[in-house]
Amino acid sequence: MEREISSGGVVLKRTAKGWMIAVIEPQREPADDKKSSQKMVLALPKGLVDPGEKPDQTAVREVFEETGITATVIAKLTDIKYVYTRSWGDNKRVFKIVSFYLLKYHSGKIGEISDAMKVEVKSAQWIPLEDAATKLAYKGERDVVVRAQEYLKSHSE
């Protein structure tokens, strides 16, 4: 079984409405049945760790590439592990480990991404942290958001 090592981030931004996090809507293959509408999938920004790159550096890079914002690492939250079958190319089963970091928003406008990245990311947006555990599509990422909320409760700004 192949292995993939990725890294991603939960980017926090304080607003008048409370804590917000950056999420992406990945590009997806069109549904086979053109009459059925696909449900919007929201996910955390993440991607493969490049050779020579540290996982926390990957998280910062992937957040920038997929959302258009810059952020700084606060702490490592957790690793999630799962197996998936590639839906493109070779259809191989892959064991994947994703390290997630808590990041603090620094600058940039969300959604301003390169044309090359628009092949992977349909959109990027801020959503309330309190809603993220129910709006994110993947259970592992919802659990990561809960860890971010716990971190906030136990640490002062």
Protein architecture, described:
The structure is a single chain. By secondary structure, the protein is α+β, with helices and mostly antiparallel strands. A hairpin with a 2-residue loop joins strand 1 and strand 2. Helix 2 (129-135) packs antiparallel against helix 3. Strands 1, 2, 3, 4, 5 and 6 form a six-stranded mixed beta sheet that branches. The chain has helices at 55-67, 129-135, 139-154, and strands spanning 2-15, 18-26, 46-48, 70-85, 93-107, 121-128. The protein has one domain: Nucleoside Triphosphate Pyrophosphohydrolase (Alpha-Beta Complex). The mean pLDDT is 92. It contains three helices and six strands; from the N terminus they run E-E-E-H-E-E-E-H-H.
Give the structure's gist in a few sentences.
This protein has 157 residues and is α+β, with helices and mostly antiparallel strands. It has a single domain (2-30, 39-154), classed as Alpha-Beta Complex (Nucleoside Triphosphate Pyrophosphohydrolase). The chain is built from 3 helices and 6 strands; from the N terminus they run βββαβββαα.
